[in-house]
């Protein structure tokens, strides 16, 4: 145990200390995870509603920790952001997703989540360029998903980086649309190709007429602005049909399919093809 002075002793909180220790251990493990090849990507299909076909997949990272088992990105991405590990991890995600997507049918796109912290660094433009170059993936098949909080930082710099990436032919989607604190005016400054409507809207729409109205308004705004609209977290046929009636272009969620390993994609596409 630590020797502390009498005055500080009364502030000693073993629970707090063990929590700090646990975090420190997780941090050390996270720093080594990439070198130990503990990360992998799962892919969740996105279905074009009008085309009635799979249009692409979103890459979702998984961390297989030797003793904790599979750690959710919800539990390590923010830590990775705090300690700067998000840069090498994010680069690995981009490279891996681009490489794996080259093995798919050339009609299929791949969407990659980019943390706001990655956009704080000017290097992000080069990282994207390098991932495309080393994989040989056509830039048109890559889509980056950013969140509103990305736009809250130094927005001039961020905009410059977004335009730089767009200039390569890569498209940018606004993820978790409607949950952040950015003003809608960013829709004037950048041509996002897609709005991904957060799962919470869809969940609430079932019980709340106001949420349903809001959902419809977002869908028609997307349509008037020429942006595709993706509903995430579609879990039921009812939700799917409601979205279809509302003019939503794309659906993603357990109703279509759960995130799957890259090895499962080929068979999934074969069995889900309309007959
Ligand atoms: P997100 O980008 O909003 O991803 C959607 C999350 O919803 C995924 O969770 C997905 O598995 C889950 N999901 C999909 N369909 C359904 C459904 O029908 N119902 C429910 N309840 N959930 C559904 P996941 O894979 O745990 O990822 C959580 C978050 O972690 C992601 O949210 C994203 O913000 C972040 N993340 C994942 N992979 C990466 C990555 O490679 N880089 C970065 N920076 N963040 C990532
Ligand atoms: Ca996403
Ligand atoms: Ca999302
Ligand atoms: Ca979300």
TrEMBL record:
* Top-rank lineage group of the source organism: Bacteria
Q: Which residues form the EAL domain?
A: 23-273
Please report the name of this protein according to its UniProt entry: EAL domain-containing protein
Query: What is the organism of origin for this protein?
Result: Pistricoccus aurantiacus
């Amino acid at each position: 145990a630590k020797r502390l002075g009498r005055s500080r002793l009364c502030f000693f909180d073993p629970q707090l200390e063990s929590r700090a220790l646990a975090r420190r251990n997780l941090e050390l493990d996270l720093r080594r995870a990439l070198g130990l090849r503990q990360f992998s990507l799962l892919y969740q299909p996105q279905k074009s509603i009008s085309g009635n076909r799979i249009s692409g997949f979103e890459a979702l990272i998984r961390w297989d920790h030797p003793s904790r088992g599979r750690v959710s990105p919800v539990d390590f991405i923010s830590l990775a952001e705090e300690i700067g590990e998000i840069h090498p991890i994010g680069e690995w995600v981009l490279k891996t997703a681009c490489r794996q997507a080259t093995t798919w049918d050339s009609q299929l796109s791949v969407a990659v989540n980019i943390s706001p912290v990655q956009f704080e660094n000017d290097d992000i433009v080069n990282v994207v360029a390098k991932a495309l170059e080393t994989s040989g993936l056509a830039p048109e098949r890559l889509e980056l998903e950013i969140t509103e909080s990305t736009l809250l930082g130094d927005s001039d710099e961020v905009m410059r980086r977004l335009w730089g990436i767009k200039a390569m032919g890569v498209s940018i989607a606004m993820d978790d649309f409607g949950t952040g604190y950015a003003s809608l005016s960013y829709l004037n400054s950048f041509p996002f190709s897609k709005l991904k409507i957060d799962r919470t809207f869809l969940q609430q729409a079932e019980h709340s007429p106001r949420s349903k109205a809001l959902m419809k308004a977002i869908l028609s705004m997307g349509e008037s602005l020429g942006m595709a609209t993706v509903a995430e977290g579609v879990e039921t046929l009812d939700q799917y049909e409601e979205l279809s009636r509302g003019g939503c272009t794309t659906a993603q969620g357990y109703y279509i399919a759960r995130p799957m390993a890259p090895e499962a994609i080929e068979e999934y596409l074969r069995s889900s093809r309309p007959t």
